[in-house]
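Bug #77: duplicate submission created two jobs. Keeping one. Sequence:
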Amino acid sequence: MNQNQSGSKAYLFSIVLVAVLGGLLFGYDTAVISGAEKGLQAFFKDAGDFNYTDAWHGFTCSSALIGCIIGSALSGLLATRLGRKKSLILAGILFFISALGSMNPEFLFFEKGKATFDLLIAFNIYRVIGGVGVGLASAICPMYIAEVAPSNIRGTLVSWNQFAIIFGQLVVYFVNFFILGEHIQPLVEEMGKGLAAINPAAQWTVTTGWRYMFGSEAVPAGLFALLICFVPETPRYLVMIGQDKKAEGILGRINGTDKAKAILADIKETITVKTEKIFTYGWVVIFVGIMLSVFQQAVGINAVLYYAPRIFGDMGMEDPMKVTVLMGIINILFTLVAIFTVEKWGRKPLLITGSLGMAIGALGVAFTFGKPGMEIVTAISIMVYSASFMMSWGPICWVLISEIFPNTIRGAAVAIAVAFQWIFNWIVSTTFVPMFNMELSEGDGFGHWFTYALYGGICIIAALFVWRMVPETKGKTLEDMTKLWKKEK
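Kept job's structure:
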């Protein structure tokens, strides 16, 4: 009887836990490349039928992001046509196919272990397939959580999705570290001279290690695809397709029977018209959603997350993978700060504070990178930069994108916002290396200074944008967003 009146927290947390596995896969898939990229580069450098240039390597490292753009762009259509749950099942299947295909791109069509241009294309196709899964999960997991969560803890629960993303990155840092074991990464100067020219301790990494790193994702991917079959569809989607009784039953299990009726009435009031156009509530709400996504990537965080071992190696660190793992642990701790303060402090204060912390960290890197005796200051600045992101833009951007749009345009609006996020993720990831290595004169290190000074400047602009344009949504229901943007129009 008590459960009927107050709802079951255990039921709510169990379905949210399954949904955040999608976030874990998102983090796992995007960060697995950090440990695998050098072995992969050495493998394809030995190709006899084409020259595997730095440009090709940059494309290969970021090819999954092309899939992310496609998946996020399709997420609104799929979430509306198939529903939130079936779309997540599809994402899990795509993750699984990508993991096995990236591990063994020769499957059925190519000679095992022989690097060719056609094999490179096949490998990138498998990475793009995984990227489509990431794009779907990145948009629909927070949407799913937001649509099942009570308004008073929605921010906290959606923030756990970001925790899962960072945890997934940390897990894969550890997995890559243990797969590497006593073996080492090949040196760039050894690449392209044949396997025999590479340090014997690095040869296994080139032939086999990177395959195990990509293949390891099949385990969490298979688990996610299986478990998501057992969670319910979201009540808000069920109301949109006319299944009010089923929606009320799920709301009752989560919130209690009495509250379920009131929530159902609110949902029905705001979903009377299912086909509202994207600009029904004006252009500002769409602009705010897009710019939240743009700033989350334009601050440059993924240039650090994707290339962390290489950056720490360039700084002269003896064991860059260990420093990368330490950074992953710090990121986890600061993500927890956001989770436990988002409902107390609100969304805006966290975003503004994090933006300013990132600016300090990025400018610290800009002024110290490559300077003798300043390596520790540079490393600390990178960690301040990363930790500030994890307590602000990392989780809070997803919270706002999942909740800021009115019910009738949420699927399409989230898809647009998240597609912009992946477009700018791709831009940052593909421009970082050439921008970082840019020189006005030989050996002047101009690119090191310019890159992080640029990111620091963008962080300051992001803080001003949040202060002036973003409404505070703490404590508001998803149905309140309709009233909020009708007033703003």
